[in-house]
Design goal:
- This protein is of the alpha/beta class and 149 residues long.
- Helices cover 46% and strands 13% of the residues.
- Helix 1 packs parallel to helix 2 and helix 3 runs parallel beside helix 4.
- The longest helix has 29 residues.
């Protein structure tokens, strides 16, 4: 039995990289996963994650003995994040761990960065974390069992 047996983790940016690593590791400790990713290219010159990669993460979680609800959702949209949390609650019935992992960066000189590129970075890296916390923490408080962000 793992340290997270019977627990559920919500992870943003779960299709690959650190998000995938978190999902697989937490599943190995017994957690089920609600994993979201935008599954599209947001940064010019750097390929975005794909839905196939998100499904590959889900398969890796299952190999570790966990279950994963894989949802294509954009952290820049509170409604999409909230809908993913609701779907996860419907499937798993609880929420214990939140990993606000989604993040992007832009290449190049700061003064050559477009306003749109800058806004995308702010919206994913800052507003996305706010959306994630706002959508998840009330559920953990209502459960009355604590949680980890």
């Amino acid at each position: 039995m793992g340290r997270l047996e019977g627990k559920v983790a919500f992870i943003t940016g779960a299709a690959r990289g650190q998000g995938r690593s978190h999902a697989v590791r937490l599943a190995g400790e017994g957690a089920d996963i609600i994993g979201i990713d935008v599954c599209e290219q947001l940064v010019k010159g750097y390929p975005g994650a794909t839905e196939a990669e998100l499904q590959e993460t889900a398969a890796m979680v299952e190999e570790k003995g966990g279950q994963m609800l894989a949802v294509k959702a954009d952290v820049r949209s509170f409604d999409q994040v909230s809908a993913a949390v609701s779907a996860g609650m419907e499937r798993f019935g609880r929420l214990d761990v939140v990993v606000a992992n989604a993040g992007i960066f832009t290449y190049g000189r700061l003064w050559e960065t477009t306003l749109e590129q800058w806004q995308d970075v702010i919206d994913v890296n800052l507003t996305g974390v706010f959306h994630t916390i706002k959508a998840t923490v009330p559920t953990m408080i209502e459960q009355g069992e604590g949680g980890s962000v």
